[in-house]
Amino acid sequence: MKVIVKYISIIIFIFYITQNSNSAKPSILLVYPPDDSKDIIDQPLIFRWTSGDNPYKYRIYIDDDPGFFNPLFVSESDNTTFVYPQKPFDQRHKLSSNQVYYWKVEGIDAYGNVISQSVKPFSFSLKLSINTTKDIMLSKILLCSISPNIIFKVETKNLGSIAEYNLNIRLYINGKLYGNKTLEVIEPNELKYVSFIVDMSEFVISEKKFILTATIDFFDDNLNNNTVTEIITLPEEYFEKVFSKISGKVIEKINEADKKTYGIPNATVFYSGQISGSVISDNEGNYSINKLPPGKYTLKVACKRYKYSQEKEVIVEKNMTYDNIDFQLYKKQPMKISGQEPKLNSGTEEEQFSLQFFFKKLKSFLPNDVIIQIQGYDIDEIEGISPIEKDLNQLIEQIEMKKIKIIKIELQ
What we know:
Immunoglobulin-like, 4 domains, elongated
């Protein structure tokens, strides 16, 4: 009886060992790279194998030690191929030439348990060619000179592995293409500067700042560094050396026979051309327009109670001063609108306010050429309009209803 018990125990033990040894069957056959293959030049390197079963995933190991105690690289695949990364993020994963590597594959289930594996690891070595990379970087735009000309330089570096030739670099100023330059050759790791001589007077001055953008017509491995943008502030001394000035005086002349003139303060001098704007004359009638870039400018003057001046044109050249650009103004004479006799200056403040509204309303019924002629008159300069509110309202109402119309306007 005892012999039978021992026999049964042995049978159970042997069965237990057999079941565990078959839990990871060597059902995976490694195909490529084949065992003991040397000087593989494949780029990228693709591992291939076959499997007699259908595991949930495959786990691939690559190491320089056939024991795989601390593998260089471990990854997973859903199918029987794996593409090794050409530019691995971890430098330890980068494979080298003249080094023997080993690889093996395991089949795993959904819980990560190994259910199949390759019979033995295969060895291989690589013969890597030098990777050819193309990478031109535009890193900076530098303001290098302001005298006698402004010079911008675009800092350019070749981060690639080969020399590049005839590169077209473009410069934009405030969004407008200014010019192109050709960089004939730049070697790997070489730093060069592409110069642009710029006449900034061609651009409208705004707070002395300019947005400069340089781009390169080149398709490479890193398009993000093919463009650079800088905000450049020009120094004050540049404006003093380059831009021009127009100055003069706004004077009153009673009539042509009058030889004596008087300066008119607070007159507005308008200018338009390369840039536009206006300045106000001082207490003696003097005005000055500064920091004008070269170009043709048109000037005219307007002042309350005075007729508009004749326009004047000034051709401005670089770094010049144009003095004595004077304007003579004549006072306006009172304007009369026929048909009304009472004077405007009479009446209360409330009536004066009503009259202002009336005159504004009346202008909407006047011809354009008449409105142009009365432009600049104050309400207290116009005679011949009734200050009585009732009469004004009735007059506007009748004009709107076309019961009456303005048949005569006399300007004096």
